[in-house]
Amino acid sequence: MKISLINHNGYTLIELMISLVIIGVITTAAYSFYLNQHKQWIVQEQITNMQQNARTSMEELVSKLRMAGYVDLPQGIDPIVAVDANPDTIAIRFNSRDCSAAIGKDMPLPSKPLHFDQVECFQESTWVYIMVPESDSLYPYGEWFYITKISINQGQGWEELIHGLGPLSMAYPEGSLVLQLEEYKYYIDQTDPSHPKLMRQVDDQPPQTFAEDIEDMQFVYTMADGSTTSAPANPREIRVVEVRITARTERPDPDYPGDHYRRRTFSSQVQVRNLGL
């Protein structure tokens, strides 16, 4: 007689319930592990982006500060314009191409071209700065304009810079200086408090976002006499600039204490090598 080892009765209800409980525990544990790992990945990604934004911003400011005042800017053009506003604002100026020329004769009207003996160093489709020498107190220091065309030798022995975007604010007199000035202005835009941004404005062009989630920017200036200030009265006496930038994560983390934002502050000291030479 053959004995069958197969149980034809199937699983009992208790066995099925135990199996479901075990599967549920394993599934819950696996899902909890996945959620925790996913959250940690998101947090690390935000921290990485935050640090990258801060480093990129610091590198930009340091590189421009090292150029401040390059090629002996004329009197009336400060190499650094500091605004102690908490967060601070800074404008950095230099003439990297060492390009400048004086107007050869008075402008008859603000809309007319500017006449020079020669304009070899200037280029079309660039921004330049025009100013009256500081000694002439009857005029403002100057303004930006865009060179739309350069006309060489119009039959009268003059070379012309044409500013086709519109007239200047005044008819500049003979001897006014035009230079290939570069100006970089940086400030924190807090229009949206949940997403502060570091803004950069080049010359007279519209400002652009340079880095996201930059919350604060502070500058401390060491002067030629060794004193420190956040609002230098004479920018040409600046010797060292300490830069501090604070970045934060893009989104708050409900499990992080305080206001739920992680932050990192980067600092650097820059010797302004073109000032005090």
Task: Give the SSE map.
Layout: H1 13-67, E1 80-83, E2 89-94, E3 100-102, E4 114-116, E5 126-131, E6 142-147, E7 149-151, E8 159-162, E9 177-179, E10 182-189, E11 197-202, E12 208-212, E13 214-223, E14 228-229, E15 238-248, E16 263-271
Write a structural description:
The chain is α+β, with helices and mostly antiparallel strands and 277 residues long. Helices cover 20% and strands 32% of the residues. The protein is built from one helix and 16 strands. It has a five-stranded antiparallel β-sheet, with helices on one face. Strands 3-9-5-6 form a four-stranded antiparallel β-sheet, with no helix packed on it. The mean pLDDT is 88.
Quickly count the domains.
Answer: 2
The proportion of residues in beta strands is: 25-35%
Cα separation of the termini: 113 Å
Q: Structural class, please?
A: alpha+beta
Question: How many helices?
Answer: 1
Strand arrangement within the widest β-sheet reads 1-2-10-11-12
Share of helical residues: 10-25%
Radius of gyration: 32 Å
Morphology: elongated
Low-confidence stretches: none
The number of distinct β-strands equals 16
Mean of all residue-level pLDDT scores: 88
* Largest pleated sheet: 5 strands, antiparallel
The run of helices and strands is HEEEEEEEEEEEEEEEE
Question: Can you tag this structure with a few keywords?
Answer:
4-stranded antiparallel β-sheet; 2 domains; 277 residues; alpha+beta; elongated
